[in-house]
Design a protein that fits this description.
The complex is a heterodimer of chains A (286) and B (84). By secondary structure, chain A is α/β, with parallel strands linked by helices. Helix content of chain A is 33%, strand content 13%. Chain A starts with 8 loop residues before the first helix and ends in an 11-residue tail after the last helix. Chain B contains one helix and four strands. A four-stranded antiparallel sheet of chain B has the order 1-2-3-4, with helices on one face. Classes of the chains: A alpha/beta (286), B alpha+beta (84).
């Protein structure tokens, strides 16, 4: 299957805002700034004034079975955050927007129209010496109705198995080279692991952080196109991005789909902690 | 509303791992975060009355944690099933 490719700067303008823009719009009535961090305590230590905080490990997932946040819980979270379907949601967080991108992906899965990332995330906001608030934010609640989950943005295991077997889709493994090679089962300091190291057959290793500049902002569309193009990822074929639990691959999914404009890109949130624990599947080690 | 001051960021090596050490002062307290540069996961955080104390505390904790990380033997060959 072939997909249309484009790398329109207009696309980036619709999904990225700068720290200056956030500083001057953070109190607008139609704007809701939301912080989502790897370190769920970071928000309470100081956040963008008037931003609400979401915890990825309790509010952006199903806490019983392994899954994204259920639709009903998503609607409650959005409502409690004062968000309506017409609200522009600005997401930011630590680690160059790792989990902010995870939240972005889920908002798109549930059909929220206007979602953007604050380019550079929490790191850039702090590095620039901007105001940090420790005051809890209690927006006026709304009743939010989400759309049914858009599964065209999400890859499940059967599709991944088929894609790997038939080489029908391009697999992008965004983990570190040590995880890709099997030297590491999980990054230092992180608990989720797997029984086997390595990667899904045919996957290309393009670590997520290569898409970022030193200050945490995204590289230019031209540089990104060169980066992924060098590995043969051009958008001509459907793409599946994966990592360990799906958050780093959300970051790359965002880059490929919105900054490069590749139409058919899915995030495989089961990622290596699903695939690397399966019995009897093929694993590739370089 | 307070603003972070005296922000610094530098690369370092702890227990054989490349890390980034970020420190800043907020409300008179220095805060340090050490994360492993690649893949970039948060590792440890610490606070102190001075940058030196905050960074020393964080470095000590990061060292203890990173020394425990296991590396597998270098991979050899491809284990894929033919025809997969």
């Amino acid at each position: 299957m072939s997909t249309t490719t484009s790398a329109s700067p207009q696309t980036a303008q619709e999904v990225l805002v700068g720290t200056d823009w956030v500083a001057s719009h953070q109190n607008d009535s139609n704007i809701r700034v939301v912080e989502v961090d790897v370190d769920t305590k970071a928000y309470n230590e100081g956040h963008v004034p008037n931003a609400v905080g979401w915890a990825w490990d309790t509010q952006l997932c199903d806490t019983v079975r392994r899954d994204i946040v259920p639709k009903g819980a998503f609607e409650r979270l959005m409502g409690e955050s004062g968000i309506t379907p017409n609200t522009t949601v600005i997401l930011y967080g630590d680690n160059n927007n790792w989990f902010a991108a995870w939240a972005f992906w889920q908002l798109k899965v549930y059909g929220h129209k206007d979602v953007r990332l604050m380019n550079g995330g929490r790191k850039k906001w702090i590095a620039e010496g901007r105001e940090l608030s420790t005051q809890p934010v209690k927006p006026q609640a709304t009743t939010y109705q989400a759309k049914d989950a858009d599964t065209s943005l999400r890859a499940f295991l059967p599709e991944v198995m088929k894609a790997a077997a038939e080489r029908s889709q391009q697999m992008v493994d965004v983990r570190s080279p040590q995880e890709f090679s099997g030297e590491l089962l999980a990054p230092p300091g992180l608990p989720e692991t797997c029984q086997r190291g390595g990667h899904i057959p045919s996957a290309k290793n393009i670590p997520w952080a290569k898409a970022c500049n030193e200050d945490g902002t995204f590289k230019s569309p031209a540089d990104l196109k060169t980066l992924y193009g060098a590995a043969g990822i051009t958008g001509e074929k459907p793409i599946i991005a994966y990592c360990r639990i799906g958050e780093r691959s959300s970051h790359t999914w965002f880059v490929l789909k919105y900054l490069l404009g590749y139409k058919n890109v899915k995030n495989y949130d089961g990622s290596w902690t699903e695939y690397g624990n399966l019995v009897g599947v093929s694993v590739e080690k370089p | 509303m307070p603003k972070p001051e005296d922000y610094s960021e530098r690369k370092a090596d702890i227990a054989g791992w490349p890390v980034t050490i970020v420190s800043y002062r907020l409300d008179g307290v220095y805060r340090t975060t050490i994360d492993n540069t690649d893949p970039g996961a948060w590792v440890v955080k610490a606070e102190g009355p001075s940058k030196a104390e905050s960074e020393a505390k964080a470095t000590q904790e990061a060292t203890a944690l990173l020394e425990k990380v296991k590396r597998s033997k270098p991979p050899t060959g491809c284990t894929s099933v033919p025809g997969f």
